[in-house]
Design a protein that fits this description.
The structure is a homodimer of 408-residue chains.
Chain A lengths: L2 E6 L7 H16 L3 E6 L5 H12 L5 H25 L4 E4 L6 E3 L8 E4 L2 H8 L3 E5 L2 E3 L5 E3 L4 H13 L3 E6 L20 E3 H9 L7 H10 L3 E5 L7 E4 L1 H7 L8 E17 L4 H11 L4 E8 L4 E8 L4 H15 L3 E14 L9 H11 L6 E5 L2 E7 L3 H11 L5
Helix pairs in contact in A: 1-3, 2-3, 5-7, 6-7, 9-10, 11-12
Catalytic activity (chains A, B): L-aspartate + ATP = 4-phospho-L-aspartate + ADP
GO molecular function (chains A, B): aspartate kinase activity
Keywords (chains A, B): Amino-acid biosynthesis, ATP-binding, Kinase, Lysine biosynthesis, Nucleotide-binding, Transferase
Chain lengths: 408, 408
């Protein structure tokens, strides 16, 4: 017997029939003798409906009242799912965020969970009940209703699993797990059975949008085994866990877990900048002040006492960043400013990199064999990213997937 | 400066435009320097929408979860109304039932309010805020969400007014006050400026369905001045208050406040019952056991040691009551059982009856002048009811309205 926390998103509970399907899934775990706690989102469409009403009244709706408004969405779902479970003969009880209670700070529309008291939930599951908890919401120290912001229901589930010391936290989505890369680009892409938190964080932040980064961070921090799986199809999904557990389970670890890529990239260059201490800050400070996030950065020292500076930003920000950079160039006496939004970033992620050399050179050779020019390179402990010309994206990802035998 | 509690029902907050109208009404009181606490219902249609979803899942939805589900309705309204007030420049804050808190017993779907802690609300109005409270809902001793059942939002408003020691509780409805009688029957019917709790209770229970009886009882118990007025039109409405206050305000009190009538009446007679002690109980006991409410009762002693027994019930119940009475007649050896569902009840209500004689005789003479036969008579301290043939209803009410000069 295990204690399992499950999370179902808005699409999974989008209508009465789907809510009944969720009840069937929950019932199966209960039949197997597990204790089940379920966190749910608002029915899909509901948040938009409520937000539209609010915006009819206020362009920027009062945030405290916005939280009061939106939390009704999950409250409807918990009641209906509890009824659906009862109708199938599985005693169930619903809790809103404040009833658990899920205590957060007071930052409306993006509160952070501070503490969860699991006493009531553990009592109820101890009595054989399924406990259905409203995701995305909590209560502030002043007793106000708060919401956790984007991906909040995932966070609720992981935080509940941590607080209840659950054996596993299952996140049901519309995909059946985490893949070695996007199957639309590489049809042979394989679902991963296991992956580490760190790898998942690198993959998620690079565009494999299965889980919210925040919930993975949370799971990693509290070492909660996290499983991503489909609410529509059967299957074990992908288990996300710590490196240690990973090593115990798998004798032969793959070097590379997956290949992520992002099309939302643009490159900016400022050339012939007089090379003095503090020049990097003078160039990037104004960009950061405009709330533009800079990703990869390269500085090349020239021979004539000047330096060339290259960095990437999100494509949306390239025009603004270009203008700012132009002003900086005038001030610093730089030679030229260039921008290029026909680039993409490809990243290979794997904890195996820590102990294996030669991965980078295999990557570079593979791309060279395809005559793909590498414009920028960046690395972390478990990731190598390259920037290449946009038109080579599919070719590059497919070649790398083959070279590292990710389909095996 | 006064502290006013206002209540707006589902129709008054049925869409965004109407919510903004309500905000305008509230704003006017705030502009006049009053402190305002507002209790609101769910937007009209919302409760039906939610109930329909629940019934798709369970024929008899779990009552605890039904309360969780339905209370989202008012929670949406309080958020939107607070936003609308803020948008107009009036600081506002919303509270759900549990936030106030409005403490109830644990009877789901028809809980009773046990205690309201007004501290938070008084703090907020003291700081110049309008406080918007979700009607119809509360929190049980176990921390469960409860609802108050039919007319619950009126009850919330009156209970809040009592707890906050408010100067007035204003109930906004789709009528502009309480009338001397139904204007559809007597076009000259006049809106009453004032009426006592007792009179209102008699009128309400007799079919003048402006306010829920329960909220009037509550107002009477805690001596909360209650005003019924229209959310659509201007006007002072009708103030419902205690008899004492009434006397202070009006030197010349009208004898009669209003004429109520009910078409939902049927008469049952059991004739020639051997007259022994306990016969009334033997006749009415089985009726009551079938959950049929008996209204007026008359017993006529005959000359031959038998008695005739007549009583009225709701028209829906007449067939069932007739069958039960038939069985009783067989058991008791009564001569005959008769029923008549072509009768109506007309009631004249007025606290003036307490101190003035002659009202009954004027009433009887007025009906006699129109050749209307009185079949039954019943009286209380402030009411005289007669049962007459259905076809005379309009003539009777119009004649009595004229005779007592209620249009003056």
């Amino acid at each position: 017997m295990a204690l399992i926390v499950q999370k179902y998103g808005g699409t999974s509970v989008g209508n009465i029939e789907r809510i009944q399907n969720v009840a069937n899934k929950v019932a199966k775990y209960a039949d197997d003798g597990h204790q089940v706690v379920v966190a749910v989102s608002a029915m899909s469409g509901e948040t938009n409906r409520l937000t539209a009403m609010a915006k009819e009244i206020q362009d920027r709706p009062n945030k405290r009242e916005m939280d009061v408004l939106l939390t009704t969405g999950e409250q409807v779902t918990i009641a209906l799912l509890s009824m659906a479970l009862e109708a199938k003969g599985y005693p169930a009880v619903s809790y809103t965020g404040w009833q658990v209670p899920i205590k957060t700070n007071e930052v409306h529309t993006k509160a952070r969970i501070e503490r969860i008291d699991g006493t009531k939930i553990l009592q109820q599951v101890g009595q054989g009940k399924v406990v259905v908890v409203a995701g995305f919401q909590g209560i502030s120290p002043d007793g106000d209703i708060t919401t956790l912001g984007r991906g909040g229901s995932d966070t609720t589930a992981v935080a509940l699993a941590a607080a209840l010391n659950a054996d596993e936290c299952q996140i049901y989505t519309d995909v059946d797990g985490v893949y070695t890369t996007d199957p639309r680009v590489v049809p042979q892409a394989k679902r991963l059975d296991t992956i580490t938190y760190d790898e998942m964080l690198e993959l998620a932040s690079l565009g494999a949008k299965v889980l919210q980064i925040r919930s993975v961070e949370f799971a990693s921090k509290y070492n909660v085994p996290l499983r991503v799986l489909s609410s529509m199809q059967e299957g074990g999904g992908t288990l996300i866990t710590s490196e240690d557990k990973f090593k115990d389970n798998e004798m032969e670890k793959p070097l590379i877990s997956g290949i992520a890529f992002s099309r939302d990239e643009a490159k900016l260059m400022i050339l012939g900048v007089p090379d003095k201490p503090g020049v990097a800050f003078q160039i990037l400070g104004p960009i950061s002040d405009a709330n533009i996030e800079v990703d990869m950065i390269i500085q090349n020292q020239g021979v004539d006492g000047t330096t060339d500076f290259t960095f990437t930003v999100s494509r949306n920000d390239v025009d603004t960043a270009f203008e700012i950079l132009q002003a900086t160039a005038d001030k610093l006496g730089a030679r030229e400013v260039l921008s290029d939004d026909t680039i993409v970033k490809i990243s290979m992620v794997g904890v195996g990199m820590k102990s294996h050399s030669g991965i980078a050179s295999t990557m570079f050779k593979t791309l060279a064999d395809q005559n793909i020019n590498i414009q920028m390179i960046g690395t972390t402990e478990i990731k190598i990213s390259v920037v290449i010309e946009e038109s080579f994206l599919e070719l590059a990802v497919q070649s790398l997937h083959d070279a590292f035998e990710l389909d095996k």
